[in-house]
t-SNARE coiled-coil homology domain-containing protein
Amino acid sequence: MASAGAAGGAASLELNSEQIKEFDTYCDRVGAQLDTTDRATKRMKELTRGLDISTERSDGAKLEAEAKRLVAESHKALRTAKGILSGMKTKAAAMESQGGASAITARVCLPRYKALLQRFIAATSASQQAKMAFKDVAVGRMVSQARMMKQFDHISTDEELRDEWERDPDLITKAITRTTHGSVRSAYVQAQEKSMEMKELLRDIEEVSKMAAEIAELVEARSETIQSIVGNVDMANDYVKQGERSLEKGLNSMRAARRRMCCFAIIAVVVLLIVSGVIGGVLGGA
C-alpha cells in the first residue's frame, strides 16, 4: 500500500502543469460554445410553441426570422466547439506519443475531453431536433394558410394536404406563382434559402458523426463511453438520411421555380417581339 501511494505521488509530480492549464482553457472555451448552443436550442423550442399558437401572419414572419438567426448562431457555436475539440484530440495524441510526463498528463486530461465530446454530441442532437420540430410547425402553418386558396378545395383534410406537400414541396408555391411573375421570383428565392439551410443542417450532423468516429480511436473499444458514442453516431446517421430527403425536396422546389422563371422570361420575349412586329407593321403601313 505504501509503495502504491508513493508511486501515485511520483506520478502526480510528473504531470505537466502548463499542459493541464492549456487543457483547462480548451475545456472552458468548448463549454462556452455549448452553452450558447443550449440557449439557442431552448429558445428554438419556445419559438416553436409560439409559432404553433400564432394566428397573425406578421407574428409568424418575426418568429421565423428569429429562428433563422438562432440556426446560424448555433451552427457557428457548434463549428467552433468542433474545431477546439479536434485540436484537443490532436494535442492529446501528440502528448501520448511523446511518453513520459506528457503521456501521463494526456491520460489525466482524457476523461474531461471525453465528457465534453459527449456533451457536444448531445447538444448537436438536441439542436437538430429543435430545428426539425420548428420546421414541422412551419410546414403545418403553410398548409393552413394554403387552405385559403381555392385551388386546394379538392383535398378534403389538412393531413392529406400536408402529405401532398411532403410528396411535392412545390405544390403550394405552384398555386401562388400562377398569379404574377413577382411571385415566381419569391418562390425561387424561398426555395434557395430552404435548400441552403438544409445543407447547413446536414453539415452539422455529418461533422458530429465524423468527430465521434475519430475519437473512438483514442478510447477503449469496450468502454461505456464508446457504446454511447456509437449509439449517437447511429442517431446522427439517421438525421443525415432524414436531412438528405428534405434537401432533395428543397432542391426539386428550387429547380422547378427556376424553370418557371425561364418560361416567364421566354413568354415575355415572345410578347415583346410580337408587339414590336405589330408596331413596325403599323408604322410601315403609315
About this structure: Residues 1-13, 220-226 have pLDDT under 50 and may be disordered. The chain has one domain: 13-261. The domain at 13-261 is CATH 1.20.58.70 (Methane Monooxygenase Hydroxylase; Chain G, domain 1).
